[in-house]
Write a structure and sequence with these properties.
It is built from 2 helices and no strands. It has about 180 residues and is mainly α.
Length: about 180
């Protein structure tokens, strides 16, 4: 059995092949990381879209409810004002009923005040929820932005390293070819 003699060129060639295979393996791993991060980003975007789609109708419905409540409150206030005017004009003829009507007016004022208080509470809740939704959406978008930056860094840094390694491998191969040509 004859054992082949290992010279420097053979060792360098073997090292270049091993380095190339390592770079190729690293490329596949980085590609898998990139695909995984891309799927995660798409999933986050989908969640943001579904969150936005489910919250916007609630906000619009609440705004419509507030507008309707304001109209009702204005109508109630107009009714009270009209009732007071009517009582002033007709009071000489209906002195006995005036006491009862004054109590009704008092009740309407209390209900109007209560309705006004309820509307203010609803407005405050809507403002808090809007702020909370805004904070949540901002957080999700910031996270998506950071994830995109991370993916860019994760992909570009190894690609530069691979580029450098390939340039070194090319230079080694070129130098090996050059030294073979000179030895012939």
């Amino acid at each position: 059995m004859h054992i082949p003699k290992l010279d420097n060129q053979t060792i360098l060639l073997a090292l270049a092949v091993v380095t190339g295979l390592a770079v190729l393996l690293q490329t596949f791993i980085l590609l898998a990381i990139f695909v995984t991060m891309r799927k995660a980003a798409k999933s986050i975007r989908g969640e943001i879209g579904s969150l936005r789609a489910s919250l916007m109708p609630v906000i619009y419905d609440t705004q419509e409810l507030l507008a309707s409540s304001r109209d009702t409150m204005i109508n109630a206030q107009e009714f009270v004002a009209n009732a007071q005017g009517f009582l002033t004009r007709v009071s000489p003829k209906v002195e006995a009923a005036a006491g009862d009507l004054a109590e009704i007016t008092k009740g309407l004022r209390a209900q109007t005040a209560q309705m006004q208080s309820s509307i203010l509470e609803i407005l405050e809740q809507v403002r808090k929820q809007s702020h909370r939704v805004d904070h949540m959406v901002t957080g999700v978008l910031d996270t998506a932005d950071r994830a995109g930056g991370f993916v860019t860094d994760v992909v570009s840094r190894p690609m530069r390293q691979i580029s450098s390694i390939l340039a070194v491998a090319k230079a080694v191969i070129e130098s090996l070819r050059g030294s073979r040509a000179q030895s012939r």
